[in-house]
Structure to design on (56 residues):
């Protein structure tokens, strides 16, 4: 649970901000063409080769 009311409030604000940002992104995607844009974006993401990790 939360240590204090302040912690709970800060977490709620962070979650609300994240929800608002997510809705803004969704609305922008809808304005750009909706589902076809999402599918193209997903395809582009999935077709990127995995990043090579450097080992020390």
């Amino acid at each position: 649970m939360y240590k204090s009311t302040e912690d709970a409030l800060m977490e709620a604000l962070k979650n609300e901000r994240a929800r608002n940002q997510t809705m803004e992104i969704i609305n922008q995607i809808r304005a750009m063409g909706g589902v076809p844009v999402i599918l193209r974006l997903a395809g582009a993401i999935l077709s990127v080769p995995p990043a090579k990790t450097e080992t020390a």
In short: Helices lie at 5-32, 35-47. The two ends are 38 Å apart (CA to CA).
